[in-house]
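Action item from last week, closing it out:
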Amino acid sequence: MNHDSYSDDFIRAILRETRVIAMVGASPNWNRPSYFAMKYLQAKGYRVIPVNPREAGKEILGEKVYADLASIPVKVDMVDCFRNSDSIPPIAEDAIKIGAKVLWMQLGVRNDEAAARAEDAGLKVVMNRCPKIEYGRLSREIGWMGVNTGVISAKKQQRV
């Protein structure tokens, strides 16, 4: 697998087959990226279960927060990691143990050793991407706002 470039079909299949996402590093703060991503993915029909040891037992966006992946009482399809790259190896091991199908590392997060371990165990792996952004891009939701359409540009226009 080339982790520098994922095909749209690969990402689309993951998003289509996923129903339950465990979000490691989910934050209760409305202004954090994990909160935005969780809210968006819930609105698209995914069940997103927050994992955050400091918030365990509380709720984020109507879902009970768990201290770790092993504590989640339902089958998890995807483990979405809002943690730094060095924190990924034990999360990957836990994702393997709970039988997750996908290990997804957020923007700026990459750990090739953990990815190889997860892939060897049969998981699909995505690094340095956001499922919220990928869902919006592949469903063309982002396009109606003018993003990536060429309608809005930061480039200075040349006068003719």
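Closing note: The two ends are 46 Å apart (CA to CA).
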